[in-house]
Amino acid sequence: MARKCNKSDLQSLPKCARDFIKLVIIKMRYRKKVRADVQDELSAHFEDELRDCATDKEKEQKAQQLIEQFGDAKLLGILLRRAKKRCRPLWRTVIARTFQAIGVLILCFIIYTIWFLTGKPTISVDYLAIINQMNKPELSEKDNAWPHYEKAIELYVKPSENLEETDTFRNYKEIKSFGDITAEEKKEVIDWVGQNQAAWQEFATASSKLHCYRKAEYNTKDEEKWLWNILMPELAELRGLSKLGIWRAKINVEQNKIQQSVEDCLVIIKTGRFWQNSKVSIVEQLVGLAISRLAHQEILHITETEKLSAAQLKRLQQQLLEIYPSGFPPMDIEGERLMFLDIVQHVFTDRGPGGGHLIPERLCFLNDALCGSQDFLSVETGLGETFLLAGPAMYHARRNETVAKGNEYYDQLAQISKMTPYERHINEIDEDEMILSLRKWRYVLISIFMPALGRASEVVYRVQILHEATITVLALQRWRLERNGYPADLDELVTAGYLNELPMDPYSDKPLVYKKTDDNFILYSVGRNFTDDGGEYGKDRKGKPRLWYSLDGDAIFWPIQRN
Fold first, then answer.
1. CB 33 within 8 Å of CB 81
2. What is the average pLDDT value for the chain, to the nearest integer?
């Protein structure tokens, strides 16, 4: 019999029955309403069975018999719970199962998030050792230029603040003659050059060596040893010593020591060559190119203003050819590739699905470091930032996929770096579009750290053609002295042995443009717009002629551009 039973009905039952029903209800562990219904049903059942009992003692005995028939209270509670579950409506079962599944998923997500956030990198590869091995030549230490450069850097005396602040010193590349500056400025420059005589001797000795190997080292303040934070303390001093050499060359020209001036320029170019061959980073290679460019431009100034003999021109031409016996070195990106792989091992775990995941804390660390608002070595990440970047880190490609995609892009950039600007132009290759085509958050690490190697390699071609143009100018001047005029075209130089090969313009598929004028000649590249503008100078915003500065106009090597 199923009838509603309230609390007073339960109190009318014998104590053993009340205790039994309460224990069954507890063991059910089910919703409150269902337990109330079951309690009413059990109470009603006991009341129906005990109705005919005349005394309390009979009721107690009868209740004990019923309890024995029901069996174990815990088992009965479980059976009742299952029965109620089977009898509930389907929609309620679906909802219950859905919430259970959601609860399980939330729990799993919480556990996964904790595991994800607490991931730590494992530094297993010493990429610095690999770079040092790549850079180290198989030559004796006595042929190593670095000890002499190190000594020169140690001896180098920086210019005074007064000298550094003068327009003349800052714009030294535009000074065509030492005689163009004031007497006071001359004295300050000469004094500074004299203070660095010992440093220059070491610098010159270093340039005569066969190779330059400096063992790269980690920053001593960097406990984690990031490859991108290795020390490059010598670059500023090397540029300062190269600047010193240009001033020496100008002073020697003023004192009619033309050969010594030329030798000073050759010392600078040889120094630039060593750093052009660096495999540590493109920064060192670009510094080497900048140093080399300075000296080539100064040689052109000397050739224009001084009367070099045919023998001097020939000797200088040969010396320039000997600086790059294996050809002008292209941009080397292997150091940058290793730097990227080192960053991966610092910001990814090394186990789990896909080889490991991006650590949110490390992504936050890199974001702060790259913003430049703090010292790289003292960046601290907050818990809020870490949680904020947890989503992007989860979406980011896993370690194996990131490394594979990174290597794919470095392979493409290595091919692009070997293409001239003209070849990239006609093939419509744009490295910026390559990076933009990436799914930003999927490969954020690649988009952040992939260097602009295409533009850097363009600098290589500009300095290379400056080198070849300088050799060509020397050959043309030799021809003029020996044959009383200039040739009709550059092919005559090659045919007569004045040049080994034609200087090919990296901004076209042809040699540099050469044209005879009344008593001179013009030699130029068609420039960054890939169009021959008839020898019209490319100019900067102030209207001054500049090599490679403007997209309009040509890059003219000869005659020397006058501001």
1. no
2. 85
